[in-house]
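Holo prediction. Input below; ligand is D-glutamic acid.
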Amino acid sequence: MTSAGLQGHTLALMIGVFDSGLGGLTVLRELVSRFRHADFVYLADHAHVPYGNRPSGEVVDLTRNAVEELYRRGAKLVLLGCNTATAVALRRLQQQWLPDSPWAGTHNVLGIVAPTVEAATQTPWAVTSPQYPQKYNTDTVAVFGTTRTVASGVFPEEIRKRCPKVTVVQQICSELAGAIEAEKPEAELDRLVAEGVAGVLTKTAGLPPHRAILGCTHFPLVEHLFRRHLPPFTRILSQPEVVADSFEDYLHRHRHYLEGSEGGRLTLLTTGKPEDVSRLARVFWPEVAAFGRA
Ligand code: DGL
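Structure of the complex:
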């Protein structure tokens, strides 16, 4: 894995991954370990993290700026490794911005809600109506997310389209992503997770959910705390894995995004302070390279 810095690499084809902060690294780490032949550039917008409590218009503008920055850096395909950005901005960027932009026809942007919904419903994204046996699925699914992701309603909407009998319970964890970025002590993170789980149980009359979607890419960093507070039979859907599975399928169908990649190159950028961001990143990904300034 190479260190940060783009000199000499600006023309190479890379896959871009974006998050407001370090949460997207949970997805990137899985992608890097699976796609040895790909080169990646990751952008974290620490100047504006967290996104989850910002107005939608701001999230759209910040996400578009980040995607453009990654395109300028050589990425033709960008994955939003952020549920908030995906839930709020992806459709607007794909339908309203990209087709009229200078990147139209050559570049693309994808999100992480679709693969998560596919995994939660066991139904392909292209199938938008109930199919046997999913129409008989009566499970309860809990979705933990930021204020903005929950307000978008995208998870319940997309799950119910495919599995109308599933009960979807959403829970805002408004402080958790910020607390993870701010390196709050484990006890405080544990309290925030416990509050989130308790919030779900108040909405299900105390019945634990069958499945839990950690609908914020920061939350896998505290998955052990969710595991502690949820009963053993609640299956936690791990976004990094389901996103990487789906990305694998996508790249099989769109191999040109890998042409020109040398493999193994990773560039990490932040709009914040690279030293601080690099230190925190190593807490949960010890061998990760250093961040550079975006
Ligand atoms: N990690 C992001 C998500 O998946 C955003 C967290 C935030 O910036 O609030 O939602």
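Residues 3-112+241-293 form a domain with the Rossmann fold fold (CATH 3.40.50.1860). That is the main takeaway for now.
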